[in-house]
Write a structure and sequence with these properties.
alpha+beta
């Protein structure tokens, strides 16, 4: 592992030995530093020297013990003396300045070599320790036995233990990378030992075994890491920063005025949301961030609500990109802070300013995401209220014409008694939404898909969920198989990870390479793959994601109740195979009874098959609903229910996103899109091969395609029959 470094060190010492052997015939290493630099440099190498003249030319000067001690003492204080110091030292010691110069050069070389040898020894010891730990884990894995029968464990029978090993392996890999970084500082380049280790981990290529399909050879798209594409966006230049500060201050002033204004700036829209009067806006704010670009449509809305969270926590959620993208995971598919220009003053976020990039989504592959590059500014005002504003910085970066520009948008937060806050939210964007699919056009153009009402409804629901997870006075009947409050928190944390994973994987993000399997209409099935090797919380292998969106002539609430009810599950869930579904645990996490987390047991109709556990979370608000579920390992779930760490549990979430098909319901019944029906997105994640390096067969794709289409047909038949 460290051969390159050691080789260079030995090579350096070999050169000095050549010189010394030709002049001194085996002088000891500890005499190396006592040589006169002048005479050492003058002595020719053994290859160039005439053997007959060696004795005549052999001159060698040893420094006295006092000279060495004085130079050693001076070296400790100053290893790089200048000309003046060298002359003074040479005068005191009775040496030539050149001799002093070469002594210090030799001493520095010697110290550097000793330092490198010491570092190499430490690195080698750490590496051997890691290698031994890794071998122990491999041996434990190879000797594992099935807890049921006592025989060798087959793949899939020890998911909990495997997840534990994979997380531990990821930690070891980070440790190895850290050591590699330390070694690279001394060798001058990354150690080659580690390049092979990491090269296959970051590979995104995927071979598609096409067998005898001939002309159907092609590819299935793959999901990339959420941060990979966002990291390609650079932060602002130094010359842009003063302009960003100016823009943020002006945007804050505009947001406050817009949040506090009423008519004529805001007029009541068709979905009971305040809609912006554009003419009045241009008269009130003539400067802004410039005129609306050609081809973009204005979309602005305002909404207010009282939420069960104090103002301090709300501000922290909005200013921490990880918390923000987690709380609003249904709207924010990806987000990243590129640079923090100010962290604020007085130990809080007052005056904090950061440059960000984010991608906003609707949970369907049929609606293109909206990408924004913007500044986020937070300020506390004299009346005690807080405001957080976003404003686009597209004019500051050389890029093609933006398809979405964010005018001053954000929220005003006012503190209320008992830990509540009043939030006034303003969304104001200019967007090119011509690529939106026809069935989603009424929803998007109404402002419900990306508008203020959706942000506020999501925030209200998530605040209720957080308050529920922190509650301690839980009725005993709510616990069921959950044995403790800690088990309740662990189950909620696991469900939160499941929901986030589903939401970030179902949209049309540019990180998703969806491939359409057919081109016959809106309900085409789109698929993509993900290789899972050492991802904590995911089973290893090739995961195939499939999604489709379609319209049904049923109100969103009725579709939601049908899909979340365990008693009607066997009407659409093919994988439950007609078995009886029983709710084992129930956690309410909101005022609406539809907001809950459940643990379901599917009792197989076939006695030869084992029962299955399903973790499910359902959530609903005025702008949309979700029913998300994932099969879970029984052993792992027992650990979670007793309060264990849920991060070790492998999950592959599937589920449904249910949105209204437009702004409201008309009195003539649900006859067409926009008349009160539902837009339903179905998404499955299925492990098609437990070996990550295997080729994906078209047979697997065809099976998943058939599965999702059959599920869609069952849902359509069941809900339309119920509504009739």
């Amino acid at each position: 592992m460290f051969q390159s470094n050691m080789f260079e060190s030995h090579h350096m010492f070999d050169m000095t030995r050549k010189t010394s052997e030709s002049d001194l015939v085996k002088v000891r290493d500890d005499d190396y530093e006592t040589r006169s630099g002048t005479e050492t440099m003058e002595a020719p190498s053994g290859d160039d020297q005439d053997p007959n003249q060696r004795q005549k030319k052999k001159r060698y000067h040893r420094h006295t013990q006092r000279q060495i001690q004085d130079m050693e003492a001076f070296f400790k204080e100053c290893p790089h003396p200048d000309d003046k110091q060298r002359k003074e030292l040479s005068r005191e010691l009775g040496l030539e300045p050149l001799q002093v110069k070469f002594w210090f050069q030799n001493k520095r070389t010697q110290m550097k070599a000793q330092h490198e040898r010491h570092e190499n020894a430490i690195l080698k010891a750490e590496n051997e320790k890691l290698r031994a730990e890794n071998n122990r884990y491999k041996e434990a894995l190879s000797n594992a036995t099935c807890p049921s029968c006592g025989g060798p464990a087959a793949l899939g029978e020890m998911s909990f233990d495997e997840q534990h090993l994979r997380i531990e392996n990821a930690r070891l890999r980070e440790e190895v990378d850290r050591i590699s970084g330390i070694a690279a500082k001394y060798v001058g380049k990354p150690l080659s030992t580690f390049t092979n280790l990491s090269s296959h981990l970051h590979s995104r290529s995927l071979d598609l075994g096409v067998s005898n399909f001939g002309s159907q050879s092609g590819f299935v798209g793959e999901m990339y890491g959420a941060g990979e594409i966002l990291r390609s966006v650079s932060g602002p230049s130094e010359t842009d920063k003063p302009m960003i500060v100016e823009l943020a201050v002006a945007a804050m002033e505009e947001l406050i005025r817009m949040a506090q204004a009423g008519e004529p700036l805001w007029v009541l829209g068709e979905n009971s949301t305040d809609v912006l009067n554009e003419d009045e806006y241009l008269r009130t704010f003539p400067r802004g961030i410039g005129p609306k670009p050609l081809g973009l449509r204005s979309e602005a809305s305002k909404e207010s609500a009282v939420v069960i969270m104090n103002h301090t926590n709300l501000v922290e959620i909005l200013m921490d990109v990880n918390q923000w993208s987690s709380v609003f995971c249904g709207i924010v598919s990806r987000a990243m802070t590129l640079e923090v220009l100010s962290t604020g003053v007085a130990g809080n976020y007052n005056g904090a300013l950061q440059v960000m990039t984010a991608e906003f989504q609707v949970p369907s592959p049929l609606v293109p995401t909206r990408e924004n590059y913007f500044a986020r500014y937070c300020k506390q005002h004299t009346d005690g209220s807080w405001a957080v504003v976003d404003v686009s910085l597209d004019n500051l970066r050389p890029a093609p014409m933006s398809k979405c520009r964010r005018r001053p948008s954000g929220c005003l937060i006012q503190e209320l008694p008992n830990g509540y806050s009043k939030v006034i939210w303003v969304e104001h964007v200019e967007v090119d939404d011509r690529a939106v699919h026809n069935i989603y056009r009424p929803l998007v153009s109404s402002g419900l898909a990306f508008g203020a009402k959706r942000w506020v409804a999501t925030l209200d629901r998530q605040c209720e969920r957080l308050a529920s997870s922190m509650a301690s006075n839980i009725p005993a009947g709510d616990l069921c198989v959950i044995t403790s409050p800690e088990g309740r928190k662990s189950m909620l944390k696991l469900a939160e990870r499941m929901v986030t994973s589903f939401c970030t994987g179902v949209g049309a993000s540019t990180a998703h390479a969806w491939t359409t399997l057919s081109a016959t209409g809106s309900d085409d099935v789109r698929v993509m793959t993900r290789k899972s090797m050492d991802d904590p919380g995911r089973p290893p292998g090739i995961v195939l994601s499939a999604a489709t969106s379609f319209w049904i002539p049923v109100p969103p609430r009725r579709a939601f109740e049908f899909l979340r009810n365990e008693n009607s599950r066997n009407e659409w869930d093919i994988l439950s195979n007609g078995g009886l579904v029983q709710e084992m645990a129930h956690i309410a996490n909101g005022r609406d009874p539809g907001n809950c987390v459940s643990l379901l047991r599917v009792n197989s109709a076939n006695s030869s098959q084992s029962n299955m556990l399903i973790l499910q979370e359902s959530c609903t608000d005025a702008t949309g609903s979700y029913v998300i579920y994932a099969p879970v390992d029984i052993g792992a779930m027992n650990v979670v229910l007793s309060g264990g760490d849920p991060d070790y549990v492998a999950l592959l979430p599937s589920g449904f996103a249910i949105l209204p098909d437009g702004p409201g319901q008309n009195g003539g019944g649900i006859l067409d899109i926009g008349s009160g029906g539902s837009l339903l997105t179905v998404a499955f994640q299925i492990l098609v091969d437990s070996i990550p390096t295997a080729k994906l067969s078209l047979g697997s794709v065809a099976t998943v395609n058939s599965l999702i289409k059959c599920t869609v047909e069952r849902i359509k038949a069941a809900v339309v029959c119920d509504s009739a």
